[in-house]
Amino acid sequence: AISFNTTAERYVEGTILDDFTDVDNWELLSPEEGSANIDMSGTNFTSTNERKVTGTNAAKLTYLFTGDDGVVLISNLSAFSMNPGESENFGLWIYGDLSGNTIEFLFHSQGTDDISVIADTLNYTGWKLVTTDMVELNTENGLVFKGIAVRRIPGGDTSGEIYFDQLQKDIVTPVRDYDEHIALTEFRLHQNYPNPFNPSTQIRYDIPAESQVRLTVYNVLGQNVALLVDEKLSPGTYETTFDASHLPTGLYIYRLQAGDFVETRSLLFLK
What is the pLDDT of residues 221-239, one digit of tens each? Predict the structure, then answer.
């Protein structure tokens, strides 16, 4: 098992545009309004205190794609204006879901088409300050921030949960001494990535308190096929590789036990 910090950075906070105390200035767009190939019954955008960087709340996006070209659009009704000549960067704290899908920042510039910036790939879990360089957008006109898009890419998960906090501009260049472990408040087993996979995949899990941890993989018959972790671990987020090259193609179940906490998920091995 490898312990890692999702975001190993400390930063000087910029100008806060939205702290997500509520989401009154945001609107989740339906397929008729711009989103595509999503199930609205499984897609929601709300304010929550489940996870947050600072303050009282953060925003939570739960999404469910129904097709390969799915995209969730979240429109910002405040339409924040910014001048690339004055603001060099723009950022948002994002708690990734390890889905492999992408996050895009959406802007509008007068006299040009809308601008979509691929800000990051969700191949991580935990909080991360995702930024984009405004100067690189290379526009002489002022920009208006229009919203956020989550786009499914080939092989990306069809569903997931993402959290957002502290939308801001004018962020001072970070220095690398931020410890993300202090943000962990609950045990959690994340979906493996990639999934399906061949022959190996990554499994991540959160341990908020020192615990005896056991991570096991079973086949659909309930037979133990791999013991990945069996040791006492300190608080942190961990990553373990599961190599299935010696196993037949099929569906497998992986199980995390840490003290009294138990959670299981499934993964698909395709040769």
Answer: 999 999 999 999 988 888 8
The torsion angles phi and psi of 70, rounded to 5 degrees, stand at -70, 145
The H or E element that residue 243 is part of is strand 236-243
Q: What is the DSSP letter of 197?
A: B
Q: What residues does 37 pair with on adjacent strands? A: none
Contacts for 136 with CB less than 8 Å, ≥ 6 apart:
none
* Nearest in space to 80 (alpha carbons), one of 13, 12, 18, 171: 18
Provide the whole-model pTM: 0.63
Q: Please give the radius of gyration of the chain, using alpha carbons only, rounded to the nearest integer.
A: 20
Contact 59, 20 (CB under 8 A): yes
Distance CA 107, CA 115 (A): 5
pLDDT digit string (tens) for 163-206? Answer: 999 998 877 654 343 444 345 678 989 888 888 899 999 898 98
